[in-house]
Amino acid sequence: MNPEAGPRRTRILVVDDQKNVRATTALILAHRGYEVAEAGGGDEALSLLPAGGFDLVLTDLRMEPVDGLGVLKRAAELAPGIQVVLMTAYGTIDGAVEAMRLGAADYVQKPFKPEELLVRLERAIERRRLIREVGAWAGEFHERFGVHAIIGHSPAMRDLLVKVGRVAAGDATILVTGESGTGKELVARAIHAGSPRAARPFVAVNCAAITETLLESELFGHAKGSFTGAVKARVGLFEEADGGSLLIDEIAETSPGFQAKLLRALQESEIRRVGESENVQVDVRVIAATNRDLRREVAAKRFREDLFYRLNVVPLRVPPLRERTEDIPLLARHFLDRYNARTGSSRVLTDAAIGRLMTHSFPGNVRELENAVEQAAALAETDRLGPADFPLDGVEPREPATEESGPLALVVETAERRAIETALRRHHADLLAAGRDLGIHPTTLWRKMKKLGLSTPGSPDRG
After folding, report:
1. Torsion sign (Cα): 172, 173, 178, 183
2. CB–CB of 196/169 below 8 Å?
């Protein structure tokens, strides 16, 4: 791929405290057609970023007093959307792996061949182009769907939002899966808001919060005197949602008996109130959600297979936060902005606080992150929130890649495993697409998977 076409050339800032290395690198890039500026250190780079109009920063990792990680942590704030590629010498690759976790586009190990450097830079520039497209699309998505709480520019969220946009206009039943706290209800609301049913009610019920006996009454309604406590007739949620959408959350928590009644309601588009003999026609789009693997539930005879296939017409998976760590700064600032608006405060997140959040695994996902930000903002002694303000309920953060964290080979292997697993999930185990995403040949990817003990679908074509 060549530098961006058109009247404006791609602008790259080369940062290195060794003048000869910096000048040679700048010459290679200028020869390729890029517009290049130089900075002799991290502090100079940060002073140039706000008004420089740069698309990419190529920075050495080890510099004083501001190193490459310092440049990376401030770059997104000073120049939103900018991509950062690290140059690292042998022995500092652990720091580069940590930089990748913190959002760096890539890293290249010194000494590097010019073509290797150019390939990595071109890939980072393509990533910037995609992020711009996603940002524009996300703005259009929020404008159209009116759901501003779905935040993220990561590839995982881009894929999800594209699917939401496609399925919203239809009327098919949808199964939303994902871990607790990922935002499954927000996705369901977005689908409803973008559908022809948007003017009609959106109704949600959490099956885990209601006993089986009451759940049937809650959804289908009941006649007066149909059971103890039924002092008057009641319309159920299916009828309340008539013409609109009904979210049945935690669907896996229901019993086989209830599942049979729900299946009939979906197949026949009619329900029967508890204690009545007449059926009632309903026009409802059902969106089911669960944090369990329903296929496993079916295999274990805990969930009806026929209902699973009736619900799984359009499956949507909401990724956990650990698969989209690049969205953590956006989400954290969003939650803090909301807190400030509500309380009249002026709290801000320091770079160190963002770094602390990005090294945490967040088993509670977005909900845990929101709670962490709210708690920190409420208890902090100053307006500047630092790492100490985020104890994160005593849960240990993801182990950062440092010299003290273990052998270098283990650090690199762990990073490779996570990157490969994420790419395979994103592309549904398509080795060709996953390899393209990772920048390696599918055969190389297959070999790495085999070495790491990951499931391999068979040797790919060598093409």
Report:
1. positive
2. yes
Residue 455 has pLDDT above 80, yes or no: no
CB of 109 closer than 8 Å to CB of 93: yes
Alpha carbon distance 53, 432 (integer Å): 35
Q: Above 90 in pLDDT, residue 383?
A: yes
Q: Is it the case that residue 241 has pLDDT exceeding 60?
A: yes
In whole angstroms, what is the distance from residue 136 CA to residue 155 CA? 14
Q: Please indicate whether residue 9 or residue 414 has the higher confidence score (pLDDT).
A: 9
Which residues are bridge partners to 202 per DSSP? 245
**Residues β-bridged to residue 37:** 13
d(CA 167, CA 196): 11
pLDDT tens column, 79-107:
877 889 999 876 555 666 677 767 788 88
Between the two ends of the chain, the Cα-to-Cα distance in Å is 21
Angle in degrees, CA 75, 78, 79, rounded to 5: 80
pTM of the model: 0.57
Short-list 138, 143, 139, 167, CA closest to 154? 138
| Host H or E run for residue 249 | strand 245-249
Are the C-beta atoms of residues 222 and 275 closer than 8 Å to each other? yes
234 close to 217: Cβ distance less than 8 angstroms: yes
- Residue among 315, 317, 301, 377 nearest 343 (CA): 377
pLDDT band at 197 (very low <50, low <70, confident <90, very high): very high
- Coil, strand, or helix at residue 40? coil
Label residue 396 by pLDDT band (50, 70, 90): very low
Nearest to 349 by CA among 323, 383, 305, 325: 383
Q: With contact defined as beta carbons under 8 Å apart, do 123 and 439 qualify?
A: yes
Closest CA to 134 of 110, 155, 111, 107: 155
Q: Which residues contact 56 (CB under 8 A, 6 or more apart)?
A: 10, 11, 12, 13, 82, 83, 84, 85, 105, 121, 124, 125, 128
Computed on alpha carbons and rounded to an integer, the radius of gyration of the chain in Å comes to 26
Calpha distance 368→393 (Å, rounded):
10
Q: How far is CA 416 from CA 101, 161, 166, 411, in A?
A: 11, 27, 32, 9
